[in-house]
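In this section we walk through a basic example: taking a raw amino acid sequence and producing a predicted 3D structure, encoded as C-alpha cells. The instruction is simple. Fold the sequence below.
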Amino acid sequence: MRCVELSDEETLAELEKTTPPEYVSAFFEFYRDGILDEATLQPGARDFLTAQPL
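The resulting C-alpha cell sequence is shown next.
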C-alpha cells in the first residue's frame, strides 16, 4: 500500500466518480475545513419502522 498526496481538485474528481455529492461535500467540510456538524438531528428508527425498536 502506498499513499499518494492529491490536490483538492484531484481528490474532488476522484470522489465524484463513485461517491454521492452530499458525502463528497461532508468529506471536504470535515477534512479540509474542520467542520463537524453534530447539531443537525437526523430521523430516528421510530420515524421509519412500524414496530418499536428493541
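Looking at the output, two observations stand out. The chain has a mean pLDDT of 86. DSSP finds two helices and no strands in the chain. In the next section we compare this with other chains.
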